[in-house]
Design brief:
The structure is a homodimer of 348-residue chains. Chain A contains 13 helices and twelve strands. Chain A has 348 residues and is α/β, with parallel strands linked by helices. The radius of gyration of chain A is 25 Å and the shape is elongated. Chain A binds a DNA duplex (30 and 30 nucleotides) through helix 2 and helix 4.
DNA sequence: TGCTTTTGTCAAAGCGCTTTGGAACGGCGT
DNA sequence: ACGCCGTTCCAAAGCGCTTTGACAAAAGCA
């Protein structure tokens, strides 16, 4: 069943049917209804290839999937992709994926761009001075990045959350509660978001004349096991930290296991604030001690990025080039005043 | 630059140029050379959409990417995808990916099929009685599965490795070395390959009148941390197992850490055989005690699957419908005779 | 030499859609 | 009655490629 057959069936011209389908104003509402009805009955679906040829739009956005262990072992990426996918399906867009050796991300991105299969590109997992950025800019194809890249000219379209602000605020809260000995469970060190969170934390600390020694930071892939291991190390320190910042609720899950196994009480002996990406299977309010968090939905970011990308392709715009989402600081029970015994002991 | 312009430039007809490009025989070799040369100089690339429209082929294969934590936290999938991608790039094919809620895999697969964006479908991570299979069969679109599905009618095209055989052989080797107390570090219980490996192991054991109690099996996502945890549990048993089978070298990595930390010697106190997917960053011969393995390259499987899928689409066939790859049993130093002290103690 | 094959090339007809430039029609004012 | 406008629809021209059917030119055969 194609447009021609459908239009013959309806006794209309192809033009009219096409316009009815694509929401053009110059077609009678009654006619449009009739067309829509016929589409339902016949199960007509426009041929994608023909649409692509006629419009010059592929209806797809490209992304290269790095096959490095770092990226894969990451439920966060899955959650984000789900958001992207949700919105894409809604507009009948799809993703073209190119698996690539992590050493050849730039090349893979270029190949994807010139393949003619995509209208726009998307990248994530930004690093400092990210080499993909100059490449994308030279490409004359719309693109959007999730996150930012420290050290790069900030003249590219992005969506990011205010990582510095989030961890700055979280640190301030803990400082106000009297804590002076801090530690950080962070994501992989080379990733932009991890750097920014660290910076935000350090900024707040230095306002009080405190610093954060290297051995009080852990940079790992964000799994619960690694969170536990790192936390165990912190807890074995002679002057163990009482205030922990944590880049993910997944890391926090492990960290809290370590706290419990050490016979300590979360929110009393140890205060912890985690960043909450709103993962559906891991709700901070359901932890045995509900978690104080900085919150920003990863899935919502995916939805928004898909929206902007698709909007740009369809030229629905204009969209803001750069969006920086504030996070919410939600106080629950995992934070409390510094324990009496640890007061006035001075910072690390 | 399009075909028309290119042909005018060359003083040839579009037909001839098109034929020269697509390897048809009825064009003079000298002419073909000339065309190819011009393509290089002008950087001409055929318009994908037009090709799709003219040929009816999309030049792409679809896969739904489950966003469940299980699948993501899996370097194995990345390695496999790399193989697929390698071969796809070679033929200028691409993947269309649809991220999907794990509860809606079947629906996502159907949407992908009717979207008109793909010529063929690919699925992996098969489970028993997999509900995707009947759906795919009803679809009149070529598909290929990696793995098999216990409990399903075996009338679908697949590529799988002989998981039963691999673990049967591995178990026999350990039995011949005198071991009687076994344990298994396996992948997620509901996945077909894990079931088959367990079955192969149990088959070999029962030939000697041995069995494998539930607490001597661990079913987890295949990360090194979880391998370590599970192994620690095995080693704390009053009659600790001396022979370990392991579904991945990644699990083995953690397991061996546990062995070392318990002050035991691999290949002497404990023998271990792991399945080796030939992950580039984890070579069994580079372990401090080189690992005895059952080997089958996951990347090679990816390449082969892409070949078959692309071949089917291009009707290059015929390909065998079902392929079952034998694994190699490669003996290195992580296996040795049962320790003297543990001899004749009887199986679990 | 005249005849049939083979070889190398071409013009033109799609593939199924979007979109441009008009045309038919009714309602309005004069 | 006429001309003019806005609305609603249509015919036809692409989009860039593949492929069919035909045709010259070259080659093989008698």
């Amino acid at each position: 069943m194609n447009l021609k057959q459908l239009s013959e069936l309806l006794g209309l011209s192809q033009t009219t049917v096409s316009r009815a389908l694509n929401g053009y104003p110059e077609v009678n509402e009654a006619t449009r209804e009739r067309v829509l009805q016929a589409v339902k009955e016949t199960g007509y679906r426009p041929n994608k290839a023909a649409q692509r040829l006629a419009t010059g739009k592929a209806g797809s956005i490209g992304l290269v999937m790095p096959t490095a262990p770092d990226h894969y072992s990451d439920v966060h990426f899955g959650e984000f992709l789900t958001g992207l996918g949700e919105e894409a399906v809604r507009h009948d867009f799809h993703f073209v994926i190119m698996p690539a050796d992590p050493n050849d991300e730039v090349g893979a991105l270029r190949r994807l761009a010139i393949s003619g299969n995509v209208d726009a590109l998307f990248v994530a997992y930004m690093r400092g001075h990210d080499p993909r950025l100059p490449m994308l800019k030279s490409l004359s194809m719309p693109f959007l990045v999730h996150g930012r890249s420290i050290g790069s000219e900030p003249d590219y379209p992005y969506l990011d959350i205010d990582n510095e602000g989030a961890f700055y605020d979280a640190t301030r809260l803990l400082l106000q509660l009297g804590h002076t000995r801090f530690a950080l469970l962070n994501g992989p060190e080379h990733l932009d978001f991890a750097m920014r969170r660290k910076n935000g934390m350090i900024a707040a600390l230095s306002e009080r004349g405190l610093s954060l020694p290297d051995d009080h930071m852990s940079h790992t892939t964000m799994t619960d096991e690694l969170g536990q291991t790192a936390m165990e190390r912190f807890l074995q320190m002679p002057e163990r930290p009482t205030a922990i910042l944590c880049s993910s609720t997944v890391l926090a899950l492990g960290a809290i296991r370590a706290v419990n196994q050490a016979g300590l009480k979360l929110g009393e002996d140890v205060s912890l604030i985690a960043h909450d990406d709103v993962l559906p299977h891991l709700k901070p309010e359901n932890f045995s001690v509900p978690l104080t968090t900085t919150r920003s939905s990863l899935r919502a970011a995916g939805v928004r990025i898909a929206q902007r990308l698709i909007g740009t392709i369809k030229q629905d715009g204009p969209f803001p080039e750069q969006e920086l989402w504030k996070t919410e600081l939600i106080v629950r029970s995992s934070t409390g005043p510094v324990p009496r015994a640890d007061q006035n002991l001075g910072g690390v």
